[in-house]
Write a structure and sequence with these properties.
Structural class: mainly alpha
Number of helices: 5
Shape: globular
Largest sheet: none
Order of helices and strands: HHHHH
Helix content: 55-70%
Length: 97
């Protein structure tokens, strides 16, 4: 008799955010796509990078959207992710978000 391995909560959260990212960021990895997004969409995209990396959100808005996505590496982004976040922040400034 074999038993299924337990799936940790962290893995489930990561998988869920990854699936969401694939659906919401398809084609959004360049400035052209970010340019076409609303302030709310830009906010979501920017914070999604952090949520996927386990950032411990402090604002009520982010906690409501991303729940308890607090796990290692606690929001540490790789180089490409940080570049994307900076692109998004630039568009948020341009749009007055």
């Amino acid at each position: 008799m074999t038993t299924k391995p337990k799936t940790s909560t962290r893995r489930v959260v990561v998988a869920a955010f990854s699936a969401i990212a694939l659906l919401t960021t398809a084609g959004a990895s360049n400035a052209q796509s970010y340019r076409d997004m609303s302030c709310d969409e830009l906010w979501y995209e920017r914070n999604l990078f952090y949520a996927q990396k386990g950032y411990c959100f402090k604002t009520a808005r982010a906690r409501a959207v991303f729940k308890d996505a607090c796990f290692p590496p606690y929001g540490e982004l790789d180089r490409w992710e940080q570049e994307q976040v900076e692109l998004i922040r630039g568009w948020e400034r341009r749009k007055g978000c």
